[in-house]
Amino acid sequence: MDWLNAGVQGVLLGGQYSLLACGLSLIFGVMRIVNLAHGVLAVLAAYLSLVLVQQGLPLWLAVVVVVPVFAVLGYAVQRGLFNPALAQVRGSDSARQGSRGAGELAPLLVSFGVAVALTSLLQEVFSADTRKIPTGDLASAGVPLGPLSVGLLPLITLVVAAAVIAAVQVFLARTATGRAMRAVADDAGAAAMYGVDPRHTYAVATALAFATLALAGVFVGMSTQFSPGYGDLVLLFAFEAVIIGGLGSLWGTLLGGIVLGLAQTIGAQIDPQSGVLAGHLVFLAVLVVRPGGLLPRSVPA
Amino acid sequence: MSVLEVAGLEVRYGDLLAVDGVGLTLAEGETLAVLGANGAGKSTLLAALAGTHLPTAGTVLLDGDPVTRVPAHRRVRRGIALVPEGRRLFPSLTVEENLLMGRYPRRFGPWDLRAVYDVFPHVAEIRDRRGGVLSGGQQQAVAIGRALLTNPRVLLLDEVSLGLAPSVVTQIYDAVRRITAEGTTALVVEQDLDQALRVADRVQCLLGGRTVLEAPAAGLDREAVADAYFGIAAAPTPAPAPRPTEA
Amino acid sequence: MSAPNTTADAAVPAAPPATPTVTRGGRGSVVGGGVLVLVVVLLAAVVPYVVTLGALSSLVMLFALVILGTTWNLLAGYGGMVSVGQQAYVGVGGYALIQLADAVGAPPWAAVLAAGLVGAVLALPTSYLVFRLAGGYFAIGTWVVAEVFRLVTMQIGGLGGGSGLSLSAFRGTDRVDRVAFVYWFALALMVAVVLGTYLLMRSRVGLGLTAIRDDRVAASSLGVAVDRGRRIVYVAGSAGAALAGALIALSTLGVTPGSIYSVNWTAAMIFIVVVGGIGTIEGPLVGAVLYWALQQALAPLGTWYLVVLGGVAVAVVLLAPRGLWGLVAGRFQIFPTTYRVRI
Description:
The complex is a heterotrimer.
Chain A: H1 2-31, H2 38-54, H3 59-94, H4 106-126, E1 142-145, E2 148-151, H5 152-174, H6 176-186, H7 188-193, H8 198-223, H9 230-245, H10 250-270, H11 275-289
Antiparallel strand pairs in A: 1-2
Helix pairs in contact in A: 1-5, 1-8, 1-9, 1-10, 2-3, 2-4, 2-8, 2-9, 3-4, 3-8, 5-6, 5-8, 6-8, 9-10, 9-11, 10-11
Chain B: E1 2-13, E2 16-27, E3 31-35, H1 42-50, E4 57-62, E5 65-66, H2 72-78, E6 80-83, H3 95-100, H4 113-119, H5 121-125, H6 136-148, E7 154-158, H7 166-181, E8 185-190, H8 193-199, E9 202-207, E10 210-216, H9 222-230
Parallel strand pairs in B: 3-8, 3-9, 6-7, 7-8
Antiparallel strand pairs in B: 1-2, 1-4, 4-5, 9-10
Chain C: H1 3-11, E1 21-24, H2 27-45, H3 47-50, H4 53-78, H5 87-104, H6 108-130, H7 135-155, E2 165-166, H8 175-202, H9 204-214, H10 216-221, H11 226-252, E3 254-255, H12 257-260, H13 263-276, H14 282-298, H15 304-319, H16 323-329, E4 339-342
Antiparallel strand pairs in C: 1-4, 2-3
């Protein structure tokens, strides 16, 4: 019974992880940037909605405010920081002479600098104490499922995660902008010849990624005690979901999140101290056994 | 009035002056073939016309408007479409998605999917395959179709024959001929003189980044072209040929 | 384009060819090297007698930072690998030192060196794991490994769980003697690591690494063993991080899993290398001094200094990607790794 419960909890937890992973996967898929600030940005979204809720806004309205704010932030971060960093990657390709500076490492280093600065800034503003977004009855509400009672909030998270991933997938596959994103990911120079402005398209992709990340951050904030440093763990979990699932496959990311969630809850069932460690170990095991992930590249994004 | 008018164009790659003061004009419906050996500056000229590599001096006028410094992604919206060397299809997009990228600049006109499939019937059959798994000839057909879907004022074709079997080259040029015959203004960069002459109204030869010969394609003295091609100073110095003055 | 040359060659058949001279370094390297030697002599022979014990401990931290920066630069600047998980080896080094000194009873200097070896031994199998990830994913993968190291350390009995260990090997040693020993030992270790890195970069391995960094595919086609070169760098860089971790534990007399395995060590390494100048031997020296000075100056501001450091790192990457050393020195090298040919 406990094991079954752990399994169900794990699957539901996977919803949160795959929602977190969606944006990381999207940014990497479109421009090959690994955004090391991903986790702390999700935590920033949680803090932002916490502040709004404390100001008396209903939670749903806070989400409606925070998600578009993050989309705008994503657009700005791409234009202001990541695009110049990407330009250095290009520059290092054409100028191979001498010490070439940060070169292709630039985007990674920039995102790490942002992560360090933002984490410490959050610590200054909100202190290192853990917080949680108040959700009223939602956090404790349960839905009976056979012999078990399933938490309503984790269930909602999983449903939202699946819906977001499906929506992003349809967007990439069916819309002209989504097509342009995939074209830019393949060959930015050729895409420019067909009217796609790579810098703008990258920024739209990052805006979308930040929007999903903000949504994920709010769910994290509702279900978990978070602090500024929690962003590190969020980044690692999101990353593990992406790699377990398989690079470039959003449905794989959903599967990866669920596998990670299962590993953590079942690990914690064995030894309450070892949930997170069990997740890491499953990730490393997948890396050894199936380095391409469980569902490698079903849809090239 | 000429669709494309280029004067005194200079393009550099670092210290190398790849295009050194080239001028050309393209009248409505005309097809110009730019010939020359490797390194003559042909592809660089096209890159400057398409906006993928901006020139250091000179002007490019499209329908009389300067577009010299307009970046590639906006220039295609103005009506200059490039079929790049090496085709550069999007490997993870399907053939039809590759073609639809031609609609991204939102220039609608006679060229739609159906018209492209009419010119390249075999492309319709492979529309669901990914761009990365096509043969060279299929890729070239898709690349041309993708450019046509932008309904360009000027179609730029770079080394269409490169790396293709002779029979495939002939097929592709059959299609190019049909396209230009329907009134599309085109600039064809080519090393294969025979294929170029099948579609061109005029030819212009580049050597070391400069124009060394301009002549109508009809009744062209092949020897003069060959001389210009290899930089042999022929007796009846054709170098600064008179520009065709019309309109 | 080269047409005129052919005729010229034909006209002048046998002009005596100028003998090209190949040089490495120059007056700059001699002067710069002289200044560095002088600084080291001053640090060894004068500084300990004129500053406080607290200042000496703080200088030990500077030496550890130089080692951290130099070895991270080996990974990123020469190996092209951005590891965000080097704190794994800082932690391993710290714990290994305390275990070796206290439980095994090794003399502290030997325990530090052995801790570096432990780092190398753990890095080798780890490399097979993390090398499966490329680029940015390699970065987070190394971070996961560091977390695993931390969590496993906390689970192993006898390592103090979440509260860590304290070093008791110095119990009964006079405080002045202890600080002086740690200071001189750290100084010597720093000099050895910097010189060792320099010699590694001058060797065939270093040449191969530069080739890998500049063009992996081309290097591989020329017979450079890409994976082997990267693995050597990863192991050497991790051993360096473990040495630094051991020094830190030796100086602070203890470790806690939260601080010795903190990602902030890697943040410091990245700042030091990026701001100092990536891919040069001199850059991390400059960066470490700057980081250390900023840390001292901004200490009263609490975590604000990390906000400043993060911001400065971003600005340097975007605006001066070759770092301070690149800005100031241009092509000048104190540690000449490249040859110059004059004809």
